[in-house]
Amino acid sequence: MTNHITTLTVATPIDMSWSHVNCTVLSSSKYGLPYDRVKVLHEIGLASPLAQDESFYAPPVGRPIDVRTVFPDGNIVSFVGQRYADLQDELAKYGQAVAAGNVDELNRLHQLFLSTASLAPVLFKQGTQVLTFEYELALHPVAEGTTDFELTLLAPMPSFRPVGQAQITVLINLPSSNNVAFNATVLEKNGYVFDPATGQVSGEVPLQVEGDYGLRKVLVWNWQQDPYFRVLYRYN
How far apart are CA 32 and CA 149, in angstroms? Predict the structure, then answer.
């Protein structure tokens, strides 16, 4: 079980009431591409409208982001929706690390800034209360010569904080064992209770729905705190 996840340090996260992540795995590795495409729709309902214009980072439209890119936690998804202002706070820490000669902190921040180079800012205007991010991920096999793929998700994201009776739902559509052309088996499916302030995983989120519906296998988690998800699947 994963026991620690490295994320950005956010001083003043934005309060949110709900978040919904819908992922559809497309078996593009079976028709000419070296990776599977994952189409992601991530909606976040804020507790109150934005008090001012805010920019958030997301993958550019039309280009699947390679999840093998090195990020502080090894996972591009934790940076989708990262607030521009929070990254500016990290820039200030970089200056402090230079002045103090803190090599470990300099290395951490260097990797952080490299990670955002693959992303593009998305502007949401003052008064917006539902933020929508649409993007694609590229999942390569976890090891050469295998047909195993791993999808990880962090929801809602470090710049946001669930408050009150918040609801966070993740729905993943995978190829099912009923799909004659691209049938797949889910090897592992984990939902973790996650504290973004410490990066510690303290327990598991129970799976709410699992079933084959036609050519698709559907997995659904629902939770009220910050969850982290991992799914490993293999083509048969």
Answer: 16
